[in-house]
Amino acid sequence: MRVLLFATMLGMLTGCGLSDYEKRMDEQRSRLELFDEEGKLLSDIIDMPKGKDSYGNVIKVPFEIFLRFPKPVWPKFQGPKAMYQGAHKQPLYRYEGKTDMNVLVGLAMVASSKEKAEENEALPEDFRARVREGIMDFISREYRMSATPPEFTDLKKDVRQTTREGRPHTLEFETIFFDDPRRQDPSRFFVFFNTHKYRQAVVIYQLSAQQANDKAALHAMDVSLKTLEILPAAKAMRAAYRPRN
């Protein structure tokens, strides 16, 4: 009886050990597969805006983020010429790719109230309205035409699953897309808002008409979006990323 009990327990321990080992191997495999895919499809990490704007004011970003772009998009900040904003002075920073392929990024802290909002703070609904103003400024300056994007009030929830360090990771976005007003081959803007407690960001992918219907281009956008981190962990992720390149 004791021999049988010992054998049963040994089998259970061996089984648990094998299960843990297989789990670790699966996590390692997922990590390597994601690493290879990101290396194939994405460029370097985003260069945080710095320097001075066109008015000579020092550019102040409220926090650092981690984000990698699809490879045609250059992740280096190009200075004041790559800043767009409306009347409320919420800047969008453009990162340039090939024709009609850009990524625009905006950042703000979440205000506790409209009355108490300080610099670089906004309620989520105000942040979205100001981002819309920035997109209108971008289209006006780049294409010499006025644009009236849809109001950013009726957004769809967009939950994306990925892995971080081999573990499941969920990103929750609110999203909308629209085409610019050009009659021939308009580009499409995919707008993703990400809010977490006291930080909020928007990532806007502009794709050409052809790319907007291309599975490979849309997949690269998806892989890029899943690298986004806006919480304080982003700073450590940026520091950890550099030695590998």
Task: Note down, in words, how this protein is organized.
The protein has helices at residues 2-41, 124-143, 215-225, 233-241, and strands spanning 42-45, 68-70, 83-84, 92-96, 102-110, 121-122, 156-164, 167-179, 188-196, 199-207. The chain is α+β, with helices and mostly antiparallel strands and 245 residues long. It has one domain. The longest helix is centred in the N-terminal third of the chain and has 40 residues, at 2-41. It starts with a helix and ends with a helix.
Secondary structure: elements and pairs:
Blueprint: H1 2-41, E1 42-45, E2 68-70, E3 83-84, E4 92-96, E5 102-110, E6 121-122, H2 124-143, E7 156-164, E8 167-179, E9 188-196, E10 199-207, H3 215-225, H4 233-241
Supply database-style keywords.
245 residues, globular, 8-stranded mixed β-sheet, alpha+beta
